[in-house]
Design a protein that fits this description.
This protein has 13 helices and 12 strands. A hairpin with an 8-residue loop joins strand 1 and strand 2. By secondary structure, it is of the alpha/beta class. About 7% of the residues have low confidence. It has 2 domains: 214 residues, no CATH class; 136 residues, 60s Ribosomal Protein L30, Chain: A, CATH 3.30.1330.
Length: 365
């Protein structure tokens, strides 16, 4: 594992560190929610601090985050793949160090059970499992087979790094943004191995292993990090396209002024009537750059690349008009100020005609 780390300046700096950036860096996914939550706090997120304080454990009452490393790898014996923790944190409280591994979740599971993981048995897998169980002081029995393998190596990682840094305390933290506590049953089953029961938003003391105090914690993250920075809205229309240019030039294809007005009303309602989209106007007012991505679904032969370009350009104007009131007949900022936007478009052939728009804040101009 590389021992040189580069500091991050914004949540997007976390993306290249992911094992599969394009697959996992999406709105509503744990990687992105975790990055925004921790980067904006530049500390333990507020929801986590509340759980620490309410736990009654003196060690976590005034805990201080010293260092946090996204996508932190902990080498394990028995194979070439390390345990890639979403975040590793080195913290301090009462002059004691705490080694913390963080696993972000939304609805994705903790991976295979131990039984599923060792179906294709090998010497390396046997060696690795033996090591993990020894680190956690657990026995290889039928209960272990039902445990999610990921929980074993994430928890062992916290203990391994505690030894490396001379920390007397280790914590494995599940930071779940699921508002329904999805996969909590698997986490609870893991704690049952230590004869413990728990509930969401709680921290528990597991025991002392080789002189290190081990804790586990499940925290429900703020749901705003699932949607605040990128919004997806699907507006279905009954015509091949939705731009003013199309409205006047494609009469034969069915795009009428009436249908265009239906589209515009739907867009305006989405942007003005729903509080979760208020940040679009606020971002523009603050001079921040936004990215507009549109996926256009349409019947074959009706949509050309040039049409996608025209639509994206038109939507920039329309969104700007929707989020800003007009002054003296003109929108502020001027719709020509397209330096606020970066645009991408894709075409998807389908049996229905609709468009999906995703807008994301990129940062300051």
């Amino acid at each position: 594992m590389n021992k040189i780390f580069v500091p991050t300046n914004k949540p997007e700096d976390w993306k290249p560190l992911l094992a599969e950036p394009e697959k996992h860096w999406k709105t509503g996914y744990s990687a992105k929610a975790l990055a925004y939550s921790w980067q904006e706090a530049n500390d333990f997120p507020g929801s986590l601090k509340k759980v620490f304080i309410s736990s009654g454990v003196a060690l976590f009452k005034n805990v201080e985050l010293l260092l946090a490393f996204p996508e932190y790898q902990v080498p394990l014996p028995g194979g070439s793949r390390p345990s890639q923790n979403d975040i590793f944190v080195l913290a301090r409280s009462n002059d004691q160090l705490i080694s913390i591994t963080v696993e972000g979740k939304v609805s994705e599971p903790f991976g295979d059970t131990v039984a599923e993981w060792r179906k294709n048995d090998s010497e390396g897998k046997r060696r690795r499992l033996k090591f993990l169980l020894k680190e956690l002081e657990l026995e290889d029995n039928k209960e272990i087979n039902a445990i999610r393998y990921q929980l074993l190596h994430r928890t062992a990682s916290a203990l391994i790094e505690a030894k490396k840094f001379g920390a007397l305390n280790a914590l494995t933290l599940v930071h779940s943004f699921s508002q329904f506590n999805e996969c909590f049953e698997d986490y609870s089953r893991f704690l049952n191995l230590f004869n413990l029961e728990t509930k969401p938003d709680s921290l528990v003391f597991v025991g002392t292993i080789e002189g290190i105090n081990l804790y586990l914690c499940w925290v429900k993250g703020d749901p705003k990090y699932l949607t605040r920075r990128a919004k997806l809205m699907s507006i279905r229309v009954e015509s091949p396209f939705i731009s003013r240019k199309t409205a006047v030039s494609w009469d034969a294809a069915g795009m009428t002024k009436r249908r265009y007005q239906i589209w515009l009303r739907a867009l305006r309602k989405s942007l003005r009537a729903t509080r979760e989209y208020e940040w679009v106007g606020q971002s523009l007012r603050e001079g921040k750059r936004l990215e507009l991505r549109a996926s256009i679904f349409g019947i074959p032969q009706r949509i050309r690349l040039l049409d996608i370009h025209d639509a994206l350009s038109q939507m920039i104007d329309e969104i700007t008009e929707c989020v800003f009131p007009k002054e003296n007949g003109k929108t502020r900022p001027q719709v020509e100020d397209r330096h606020f936007w970066r645009v991408e478009g894709e075409k998807f052939v389908s049996d229905e005609e609709k468009i999906q728009i995703e807008i994301e804040e990129l940062g300051d101009e």
